[in-house]
Specification:
Length: 144
């Protein structure tokens, strides 16, 4: 079983997987994700995905929006690890060509990731990434 002390060993591959997806390659995340039916993924491109098949498709779609990306940093806000579960809250920063843009732009995402031990290693079971990185007015939550 994956040990609490082993959790930090998954962080480098997890961060490197972001480095790959912003170049258009989702395979790194696919290797780190659980392939069980209870996994979830919510990213800025929506809608949320549930179950491995939907998560797999959502990772493919997300990767298709990025090209020529470069990681610029990770700001850890919180990390908790127990024998059954671990979570990570951080700001991910990178530059990439996004959508049809031909110039790289800076991107910042607040990300909450949840991991659990499976077959002796930590696997991602949930990832929520959103681009809201600055304070917003209360009215910003109103949908018209």
């Amino acid at each position: 079983m994956a040990a609490v002390d082993d959790f930090d060993e998954v962080l480098e591959p997890y961060h490197l997987a972001l480095g790959e997806i912003i170049k258009g390659n989702p395979e790194g995340y696919k290797k780190l994700y659980s392939h069980r039916d209870d996994v979830t993924l919510a990213n800025p491109f929506g809608p949320p995905a549930r179950g491995w098949d939907e998560v797999d498709q959502t990772l493919e779609r997300a990767a298709s929006h990025y090209r020529d990306g470069e990681l610029t940093g990770f700001d850890n806000v919180s990390k908790y690890v127990s024998a059954e579960l671990a979570y990570l809250v951080e700001m991910e920063r990178f530059e990439a060509k996004v959508g049809p843009r031909e110039d790289p732009v800076p991107v910042g995402l607040w990300v909450t990731s949840i991991f659990r031990p499976e077959d002796g290693t930590w696997k991602v079971v949930h990832r929520h990434a959103e681009p809201i990185t600055t304070p917003q007015p209360a009215e910003s939550v109103i949908q018209s």
